[in-house]
């Protein structure tokens, strides 16, 4: 008999991503990794499970997950990669796929992504490609992964031409967000993930942004405010993904801050100098400043966005990024590789105010260039 009560525990939040026959649950709460075996076994009894994780996460959480899987009659094989954005590359992708094949992960088996967004994107893409597609489960361990990357099925790796340029849409069959796992996450990484939390407020939920301005310290401290922030974020993302799984329409709103941010990440060599969420923080502040410069939103809103990000310790300007970055031409070239570019026309997520973001197609490259020049001069 199952040790996990059929009724959900009161301290677990369950959301659903409504994608018809590919719908799946997102479970959020403490201790879920101890139940990972039973929860996965309910979906795929007796499966082999290729656990893709990174070294930091393996040291802290792998033993718990492996034990839970074995106890439920599943057969785990860990595949451990080096931590960090540099692992989202062709070489590591090949190593992961080979290791999963060596472990005989077959079509009725499961790939389990245990880690942050790097592991989730990499393992998800490996699952999408392996034997032309095997099921995967997301077990996100960073704040960023719990509020964003584990949901929605965007998987992939970086190329020398830019960020996330090779990948696939491949939805997980389950997301297990064990909020207790965040207790071992370094503060800088938590902050980086917080940028994506703030993003949901800036897109279309001004009351949530105002709540974060009041409650951010409680979110950082842990407890109910943190769970509420994770659940609100996942609910926002689940709703957008259910409407527009493959980003033919308003899913692009989730890219707020990312056109600038991805160019900066690539410009910094996908290094520890600039984490993804940090790049998104600079990018969101820039998107609001650019919107204000275009007369789309008030300068006060742009200042308010930057002020909150700065208050929590996130960068908001190019000058906050340590080390050299490409010049304006170099940044324009990187921006030209953005996946929202269509026949050369630039698409940005801009804003008419906090919680009033919109998709701006055909952004004038000359205006963008002038803005970037002004941003570089603003020291
Ligand atoms: N697919 C999507 O929809 C989506 C959305 C947002 C971001 N992303 C991608 O996610 C990536 C960033 O994810 P991230 O910020 O989680 O980075 P990450 O995966 O590199 O994890 C951050 C760091 O924290 C460590 N870590 C993770 N969980 C830990 C824990 N519980 N305890 C101790 N250490 C822990 C990791 O080892 C790593 O060193 C980027 O590549 C970004 O492009 C994807
Ligand atoms: O899920 C989405 O859609 C997002 O845009 C979420 C982003 O936070 C995430 O960083 C995503 O990977 C960026 O997507 P991309 O298509 O610009 O690579
Ligand atoms: Zn992101």
TrEMBL record:
<feature type="domain" description="3-dehydroquinate synthase N-terminal">
    <location>
        <begin position="79"/>
        <end position="191"/>
    </location>
</feature>
<feature type="binding site">
    <location>
        <begin position="117"/>
        <end position="121"/>
    </location>
    <ligand>
        <name>NAD(+)</name>
    </ligand>
</feature>
<comment type="function">
    <text>Catalyzes the conversion of 3-deoxy-D-arabino-heptulosonate 7-phosphate (DAHP) to dehydroquinate (DHQ).</text>
</comment>
<keyword id="KW-0479">Metal-binding</keyword>
<comment type="pathway">
    <text>Metabolic intermediate biosynthesis; chorismate biosynthesis; chorismate from D-erythrose 4-phosphate and phosphoenolpyruvate: step 2/7.</text>
</comment>
<comment type="similarity">
    <text>Belongs to the sugar phosphate cyclases superfamily. Dehydroquinate synthase family.</text>
</comment>
<dbReference type="InterPro" id="IPR056179">
    <property type="entry name" value="DHQS_C"/>
</dbReference>
<dbReference type="Pfam" id="PF24621">
    <property type="entry name" value="DHQS_C"/>
</dbReference>
<keyword id="KW-0456">Lyase</keyword>
<dbReference type="InterPro" id="IPR030963">
    <property type="entry name" value="DHQ_synth_fam"/>
</dbReference>
<dbReference type="GO" id="GO:0003856">
    <property type="term" value="F:3-dehydroquinate synthase activity"/>
</dbReference>
<dbReference type="GO" id="GO:0009423">
    <property type="term" value="P:chorismate biosynthetic process"/>
</dbReference>
<dbReference type="InterPro" id="IPR016037">
    <property type="entry name" value="DHQ_synth_AroB"/>
</dbReference>
<feature type="binding site">
    <location>
        <position position="276"/>
    </location>
    <ligand>
        <name>Zn(2+)</name>
    </ligand>
</feature>
<keyword id="KW-0520">NAD</keyword>
<feature type="binding site">
    <location>
        <position position="196"/>
    </location>
    <ligand>
        <name>Zn(2+)</name>
    </ligand>
</feature>
<keyword id="KW-0547">Nucleotide-binding</keyword>
<keyword id="KW-0963">Cytoplasm</keyword>
<dbReference type="GO" id="GO:0000166">
    <property type="term" value="F:nucleotide binding"/>
</dbReference>
<dbReference type="GO" id="GO:0009073">
    <property type="term" value="P:aromatic amino acid family biosynthetic process"/>
</dbReference>
<dbReference type="GO" id="GO:0046872">
    <property type="term" value="F:metal ion binding"/>
</dbReference>
<feature type="binding site">
    <location>
        <position position="154"/>
    </location>
    <ligand>
        <name>NAD(+)</name>
    </ligand>
</feature>
<feature type="domain" description="3-dehydroquinate synthase C-terminal">
    <location>
        <begin position="193"/>
        <end position="341"/>
    </location>
</feature>
<keyword id="KW-0862">Zinc</keyword>
<dbReference type="Pfam" id="PF01761">
    <property type="entry name" value="DHQ_synthase"/>
</dbReference>
<keyword id="KW-0028">Amino-acid biosynthesis</keyword>
<keyword id="KW-0057">Aromatic amino acid biosynthesis</keyword>
<dbReference type="InterPro" id="IPR050071">
    <property type="entry name" value="Dehydroquinate_synthase"/>
</dbReference>
<protein>
    <recommendedName>
        <fullName>3-dehydroquinate synthase</fullName>
        <ecNumber>4.2.3.4</ecNumber>
    </recommendedName>
</protein>
<dbReference type="GO" id="GO:0008652">
    <property type="term" value="P:amino acid biosynthetic process"/>
</dbReference>
<dbReference type="GO" id="GO:0005737">
    <property type="term" value="C:cytoplasm"/>
</dbReference>
<keyword id="KW-0170">Cobalt</keyword>
<feature type="binding site">
    <location>
        <position position="258"/>
    </location>
    <ligand>
        <name>Zn(2+)</name>
    </ligand>
</feature>
<feature type="binding site">
    <location>
        <position position="163"/>
    </location>
    <ligand>
        <name>NAD(+)</name>
    </ligand>
</feature>
<feature type="binding site">
    <location>
        <begin position="141"/>
        <end position="142"/>
    </location>
    <ligand>
        <name>NAD(+)</name>
    </ligand>
</feature>
<dbReference type="InterPro" id="IPR030960">
    <property type="entry name" value="DHQS/DOIS_N"/>
</dbReference>
């Amino acid at each position: 008999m199952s040790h996990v009560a059929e009724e959900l525990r009161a301290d677990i939040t369950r959301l659903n991503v409504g994608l018809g026959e590919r719908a799946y649950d997102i479970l959020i709460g403490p201790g879920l990794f101890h139940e990972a075996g039973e929860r996965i076994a309910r979906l795929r009894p007796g499966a082999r499970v290729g656990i893709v994780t990174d070294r930091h996460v393996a040291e802290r959480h792998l033993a718990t997950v492996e034990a839970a899987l074995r106890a439920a009659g599943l057969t785990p094989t860990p595949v451990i990669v080096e931590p960090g954005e540099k692992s989202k590359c062709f070489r590591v992708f090949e190593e992961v796929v080979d290791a999963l094949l060596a472990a005989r992960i077959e079509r009725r088996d499961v790939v389990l992504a245990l880690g942050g967004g790097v592991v989730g994107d990499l393992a998800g893409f490996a699952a999408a490609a392996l034997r032309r597609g095997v099921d995967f489960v997301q077990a996100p361990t960073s704040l960023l992964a719990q509020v964003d990357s584990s949901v929605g099925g965007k998987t992939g790796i970086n190329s020398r031409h830019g960020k996330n340029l090779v990948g696939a849409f491949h939805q997980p069959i389950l997301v297990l967000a064990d909020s207790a796992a965040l207790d071992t996450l370094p503060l800088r990484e938590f902050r980086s993930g917080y940028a994506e939390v703030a993003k949901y407020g800036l897109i279309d939920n001004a009351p949530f942004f105002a709540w974060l301005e009041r409650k951010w310290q409680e979110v950082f401290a842990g407890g109910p405010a943190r769970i509420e922030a994770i659940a609100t974020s996942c609910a926002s993302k689940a709703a957008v993904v259910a409407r527009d799984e493959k980003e033919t329409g308003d899913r692009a709103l989730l890219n707020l801050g990312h056109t600038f941010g991805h160019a900066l990440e690539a410009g910094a060599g996908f290094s520890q100098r600039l984490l993804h969420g940090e790049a998104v923080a600079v990018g969101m502040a820039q998107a609001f400043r650019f919107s204000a410069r275009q007369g789309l939103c008030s300068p006060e809103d742009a200042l308010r966005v930057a002020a909150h990000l700065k208050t929590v310790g996130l960068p908001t300007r190019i000058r906050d990024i340590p080390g050299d970055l490409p010049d304006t031409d170099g940044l324009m070239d990187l921006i030209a590789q953005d996946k929202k570019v269509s026949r050369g026309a630039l698409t940005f997520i801009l804003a008419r105010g906090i919680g009033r973001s919109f998709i701006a197609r055909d952004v004038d490259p000359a205006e963008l260039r002038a803005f970037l020049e002004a941003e570089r001069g603003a020291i």
